[in-house]
Automatic annotation (TrEMBL):
This is Helix-turn-helix transcriptional regulator. Residues 175-273 form the HTH araC/xylS-type domain. The lineage of its organism: Bacteria, Bacillati, Bacillota, Bacilli, Bacillales. The keyword Hydrolase does not apply. Transmembrane segments: none annotated.
Amino acid sequence: MAMKETSNYILQAKSKQFYWEGNGQLSIKTFTNGKAYYKTSAGFFAVEEKRHLILNEGPYTLMIDEEEEVESFCIFFKDGLAEEVLASFRDSPEKLLSDPFKDREKTGLFEKTYHTTRSLSDKLQRLQKMSSKPEEAFHFLMEDILSQQLRQFRDVNSLPALRESTREELYRRISIAHEYIRACYQESLTLSEISRAACLSPNHLLRNYSWIYGKTPHQHLSQFRIAEARRLLAQTNLSMTDITFRLGLNNPVSFSKLFKQHTGLSPSQYRKKVILDKNFH
């Protein structure tokens, strides 16, 4: 039976609450004015503004649950496009000329969230504004995505494993640990939970996580919690106790110590400073 031919397409919507599960093509997910959460067979992902998620073809679940409308702009790529563009990067001009329509091995990209570069952001914005979506725009976008993917191999090749396939699999699992922390830092996470999500032993995860990220999982967990604490202190009137529980912590005193350790100010001092700065300006 012939395979059904796929096409490039875009989905754009606004929603406060949304849930979907099913199969999708290779895609890039972007959101503004809030977060979206994805679950795949590999792990959990939180996609926020100024970041994007790359998902390979396959099943996944999407959930949005925000107080304000979140705008999604997601691009789906037809089968074979990533392989075609990747060949233009890797193959010699002679090889591309001799067999331009060769069937190529399926390409699996690194599923994770990425900082959205200026170049990629510009391409996404232009595509969003186009009344018609020319196929070449999807090619140019895929070039940016694959350039970013190829840069990941500097981290992959830095890992202490002999075989390339082992390094790639280890990198994928470490990335899953990082994405799990990013998606679930508002819960009471332990090293054992993070390592199970990544299918790595705690010690194996610790030794290799800092090799890639320059921080331990606990340091990254604290970093995400402090960033969210700054936002909640500046933009809401939540009490210190409420903020503590929203960050996956159980003790307001521990939260206050953690916050001061990272910022030099207590949470109440930070909130007063934000108010004074606003009044001054």
